[in-house]
Design brief:
Chain A: One of its GO terms (molecular function) is ATP hydrolysis activity. The complex is a heterotrimer of chains A (246), B (294) and C (299). Chain A is an alpha/beta fold. Chain A is 37% helix and 25% strand. In chain B, a hairpin with a 2-residue loop joins β1 and β2.
């Protein structure tokens, strides 16, 4: 399942353009990484694709279907899932209940739900021991895993991950990325945004740089291997407030 | 002879019975606030509407009062649906748009009822309106007992719905994080509409029960709204048990307050309690986090 | 244009001749408008939804009643009423630390509580003995002067640093506080100013009526109608409430100047519609957006 973004422009409070004419292809079954300095609009892009923000213009096409007029929950029906940057577990619900909420689409089929639950817990075994605890009692990293597991319950074809490793200890970061590798093996198309360049690039097939609301370049990671250090250098330069030509 | 024990026993039982009804009255407000973050100031008006619906159904169609209540519920729900579609949906969350809007709604509903049915007090008479039964040393008015039983049953059903069904848990999920819920495929707006209608149904139901116990008029709405606020301040929006406890506490405070201070000041107890709670609860009226996650 | 309006205001009794109905009507109208402007200070500029506005009105009216019956000159009594209202504002001020919705509930409850408490003591209100030598028309002129004063005060506030403080509190308290705006000082200031002006009006109103019943002077209509005027016309400006007042007068005129339940329904509907479609009020939406009039500040 591929994701195509065409001419996407997103405004903030009239006249302030956060994203301008974004053109992006996310190839099926691959991990596409989006890197860029703070404020570049990466989260905004993911939120817009998820349907939480309305673009001023542009199209978002999921496997040939235009999803930009759809509400967020409709997009889930078409196979899109997102893990938000902020903490988003349902704090007063147990881990199991959180996961069940991910199963809303399939709620009428109890057998299917149990199967999905089992599958997801296979990928995230650490959650099994905490199933009946309130999710607010989990650590940051565990909550993160719960959020990803929950998103997986929707059986997504395309998964958007917004800074999955943010605020986590290095050990947890490695664990999360191991899980992302697993997701890759499940042929889920992933659009990944992260500040942790090293991990991000290690798992990516494609890399794009976003700066000040525009895509500044990128492509297949292996093709960029040589210029990857250039890209990183440019990125660090951008972080410090410089401007990149071309 | 009216010994102190009997009197206090009597007052206490009466307060407990009323407390259950108060909890039912409040739960609708709590639902809307929890799920939609809207403080529905017109809540009292929906309760009174339910009272009138019950009254007219039982009078015009000559139905049994309890059957009338059952029929009044969907009628109230229908009103709720209309209000939700026309007014609440798509309201800007800016400033205090929801609260002002519900204020306007209060005016429209209350005044319409005044026009339609005048300000004369009414009440619903049942075969056992004036009857009481004896439980030990205490005289228990039958209508209050029935209202209590019905309230408790409905509250329990609601509890089961919210904790055991998918839809119920989804409603709770929306209350905790509506954005996250949407990203999981949960139809947030649809469930919010459902919650609103459910809330007005509950309001209508409690209105019908109220109509059997006291006489009512269109201007009685704000009084119930106030009581609901107090109970929510005591209980926090989060749980049904808390609201039941809150209803009990308010009811007891009122009963004993009006016993000692005179019935004219019965509501003043509620008002002052509310203000004290507002000022002393550091986490705000409903115990919610003051800062929502951005 | 302001001077014409002001002159018109004063000319009304002359034009009306001896027509008491028109004078009475103008009196009520001026009362509501002044209330709207004073509510605007707290609700419009500072963004605190005060639903207990009637408390200022009622307390002042009561003070006026008691003092006049004790022999004081009514206009002095009005001043006393204003001071009593300041006292009320200070009493209310602890509620200011509450967030929007809750402040609204708190102020509403406080006013209701006071009303009920007073009703318990003075069920039938206080009848006033009229002071020698003061006519209805003079009362009206007093009120008109008051209205103009509040207009000027609002104008001054609009041009001053105080407005910036108020508006910053309205838009984002945390940010305002972080930028060095003393939240407590300015919120209380807004409330006190609002209360004082309202109190003065309450006093003169009570005297004009020669009868001060708790149910009436603490009635929610003294909150609702000014609120209505400000919401319709636009918060936080001088012209906003005035436009709202004109619209209110218009609706009133159409409804043949009778306060019936129908008028309440109409008001309620108008509030709901305005909030839904023009949440910023008439001024904002029509003048600023449609006519493209640029405002000089980000307010």
């Amino acid at each position: 399942m591929s994701l195509k973004i065409r001419n996407l422009t997103v405004e903030y409070q009239r006249d302030i353009e956060i994203l301008k004419d974004i053109f992006l292809d996310v190839d099926a079954g691959c991990v596409t990484a989006l890197i860029g300095p703070n404020g570049a609009g990466k989260s905004t892009l993911l939120k817009t694709v998820a349907g939480l923000l309305k673009p001023k213009k542009g199209e978002i096409i999921l496997d040939g279907v235009r999803i930009d007029p759809m509400t967020p929950d409709e997009r889930v029906k078409h196979g899109l899932a997102v893990v938000l940057q902020r903490r988003s577990v349902f704090p007063q619900l147990t881990v199991r209940e959180n996961l069940l909420m991910g199963g809303w689409k399939i709620r009428r089929d109890p057998h299917l739900i149990t199967r999905m639950l089992d599958r997801v817990l296979e990928i995230f075994p650490d959650l099994s021991s905490k199933l009946d605890e309130k999710s607010s009692t989990l650590s940051g990293g565990q909550q993160r895993m719960l959020e990803i597991a929950r998103a997986l319950m929707t059986e997504p074809k395309v998964l958007l991950l917004d800074e999955p490793s943010a605020g986590l200890s290095p050990i947890m970061v490695k664990q999360i990325y191991r899980h992302i590798e697993t997701l890759k093996k499940l042929s889920i198309t992933i659009l990944l945004v992260d500040q942790n360049i090293q991990q991000c690039l290690s798992v990516a097939d494609y890399v794009y740089v976003l700066e000040l609301g525009r895509v500044r370049g990128g492509g297949r990671k292996d093709a960029l291997e040589s210029s990857l250090s250039d890209i990183i250098r440019d990125w660090l330069y951008l972080e410090r407030g410089g401007e990149v030509r071309g | 002879m009216f010994s102190f024990e009997v009197l206090f026993g009597q007052l206490l039982v009466g307060a407990i019975l009323l407390g259950g009804l108060y909890a039912l009255v409040t739960i609708g407000l709590a639902l809307i606030f929890g799920v939609m973050r809207i403080l529905n100031i017109a809540h009292g008006e929906f309760i009174i509407f339910g009272a009138y619906a019950t009254y007219w159904i039982s009078h015009l169609l000559r139905f049994d009062p309890f059957l009338s209540i059952v029929l009044a519920v969907p009628v109230s729900g229908l009103l709720g649906f209309l209000v939700n579609t026309l007014v609440i949906k798509g309201l800007t969350k800016s400033f205090d748009a929801p609260i002002v809007s519900s204020f306007g709604l209060l005016l429209v509903l209350q005044a319409s009822m005044l026009i339609a049915w005048s300000g004369d007090p009414r009440s619903i008479v049942t075969p056992f309106t004036a009857e009481s039964i004896r439980l030990g040393l205490v005289l228990v008015p039958i209508v209050r007992l029935i209202a209590f039983v019905i309230s408790l049953s409905i509250l329990m059903l609601l509890y089961l719905f919210l904790t055991r069904t998918f839809a119920g848990r989804a409603v709770r999920a929306i209350a905790q994080d509506s954005e996250a819920a949407a990203t999981l495929g949960i139809p947030v707006q649809r469930l919010q509409t459902f919650t609103f209608v459910l809330s007005t149904c509950l309001a209508g139901l409690s209105g019908g029960l109220v109509a059997m116990i006291v006489s009512f008029q269109p201007t009685l709405g704000p009084e119930f709204l106030l009581k609901s606020f107090v109970i929510l301040a005591l209980a926090g929006v989060g749980n049904i048990q808390g609201i039941m406890a809150g209803g009990l506490i308010l009811s007891i405070a009122e009963s004993y307050g009006s016993f000692f201070l005179g019935s004219g000041l019965r509501n003043v107890v509620a008002y002052l309690l509310l203000i004290v709670l507002l000022l002393t609860r550091p986490r705000g009226l409903f115990g919610e986090k003051q800062v929502r996650e951005v | 244009m302001a001077t014409i309006a002001g002159a018109a205001l004063f000319a009304i009794p002359v034009v009306a001749g001896g027509n008491n109905f028109i004078i009475a009507l103008s009196f009520i109208f001026a009362t509501y408008t002044t209330l709207a402007l004073s509510w605007n200070i707290v609700g419009g500029f500072a963004g605190q939804l005060n639903l207990g506005h009637a408390a200022f009105f009622g307390v002042a009216a009561y003070t006026l009643a008691l003092s006049t019956n004790a022999g004081m000159h009514p206009y002095v009594g009005v001043l006393a009423g204003g001071i009593a209202a300041i006292g009320m504002a200070l009493l209310m001020s602890p509620l200011l630390k509450l967030r929007g919705d809750y402040f609204a509930i708190g102020t509403l409850s406080l006013t209701e509580a006071i009303k009920v408490a007073i009703l318990n003591v003075h069920a039938y209100g206080i009848r006033l003995t009229p002071y020698q030598g003061l006519s209805r028309v003079q009362n009206y002129y007093f009120l008109a002067t008051l209205l103009i004063t509040v207009c000027v005060a609002t104008f001054l506030i609009e041009r001053s640093r105080i407005k910036l403080a108020f508006v910053s509190i309205r838009e984002n308290e945390a940010l305002a506080s972080g930028s060095g705006v003393n939240l407590v000082k300015y919120k209380v200031l807004a409330l006190v100013l609002s209360g004082f002006f309202t109190g003065l009006v309450g006093g003169i109103y009570g005297y004009n009526l020669l009868y001060v019943p708790a149910e009436h002077v603490f009635s929610i209509e003294w909150t609702i109608i000014p609120l209505f005027m400000v919401l319709i016309g636009g918060r936080g400006t001088l012209t906003g409430p005035l436009i709202g007042a004109v619209i209110y007068l218009g609706i009133y005129y159409v409804l043949q100047f009778t306060v019936t339940e129908i008028s309440l329904v109409v008001f309620g509907l108008v509030v709901v519609l305005i909030i839904k479609f023009m949440p910023q009020g008439l001024i904002e939406t029509l003048v600023v957006k449609k006519l493209g009039v640029r405002r000089t500040s980000i307010v």
